[in-house]
Amino acid sequence: DVSVLPAVRPYGDFLRWLASRDAGVAEAAWRRALAGLEEPSLVAPTAPREATIPQSMRSSLGEEETARLVAWARERGVTVAGVVQAAWALVLGRLLGRDDVVFGLTVSGRPADLVGVEDMVGLFVNTVPFRARIDAAESLEAFVERLHREQVALLDHQHVRLADVQQWAGHQELFDTGMVFENYPAESQKVEADFDVVRTGGYNGTHYSLNLVAALRGSQLELELSYRADVVDGGRVREVLGWLE
Question: φ, ψ for residue 104 (rounded to 5)?
Fold first, then answer.
């Protein structure tokens, strides 16, 4: 009996919102963001298209380190997710030996200006390029703050298709690594029912050569690095995870 459930805004309202976006403005924004990108960022450029079941390695920052990280981000007016994104960009730059890198950023795809979108049921999640130009003369603080500003400028254009963005950038494939910062309050939700929820869990899969999933759980920052073992060596993955820490 669905009458006992709270009403949610229909998914069709999101589709109408999507259709109302100015495609030209979005294209111009992404062309500016990716202008001058000379080559894609591929960890395994010769990897076969048929992906294998990924493996993963996990790590976490201690409570004290996590608290310092949260405070550092707060003092500079950026999110913890933004700091982790910047760290991943630096790691990817080191791995590829480049100072201009791009990776796939998984976003919620739920526009803040659409009232009730947080309760809608439907397909929203999207992956868009995250570009980071690394300047050795720039301080870490300035680097993180700059990336934050660049991402804020693209917030209204995260609904676009990745295939379109790659075409605008002039590359068939921009990246083979991705990351997502999980930021949903699953553990804090209360369930009013005649039963107890003992445990919740989930499984993440990826077709990328490397894919980072980060999340603040309790008082620790948890990190999970999934990888295609057919194209990336496990020892190298452990090394990369150490760099990120």
Answer: -85, 130
- SS in 3 state form for 10-64? CHHHHHHHHHCCCHHHHHHHHHHHCCCCCCCECCCCCCCCCCCCCEEEEEECCHH
Give this prediction's pTM.
0.89
C-alpha dist (Å) from residue 129 to 7, 43, 68, 176, 222: 34, 15, 29, 11, 23
The answer to whether the Cα torsion of 158, 162, 164, 166 is positive or negative is positive
Residue 8 has pLDDT above 60, yes or no: yes
How many CB atoms are located within 10 Å of the residue 212 CB?
A: 27
Helix spans in the chain (H): 11-19, 23-33, 63-75, 80-96, 140-152, 162-169, 234-244
Residue type (1 letter), 150? E
Tokens 């690095």: give the residue: 225
For residue 57, the cross-strand partners are 225
Q: How far apart are CA 176 and CA 233, in angstroms?
A: 15
Strand 210-217 relative to strand 220-227, pairing: antiparallel
And the tokens for 191? Answer: 């369930």
**Model confidence pLDDT, tens digit, residues 164-202:** 999 999 988 999 999 999 887 655 556 677 788 788 777
Cα 136 from Cα 18, distance rounded (Å): 39
Neighbour-count burial of 32, counting CB atoms closer than 10 A to its CB (0-12 exposed, 13-18 middle, 19+ buried)? exposed
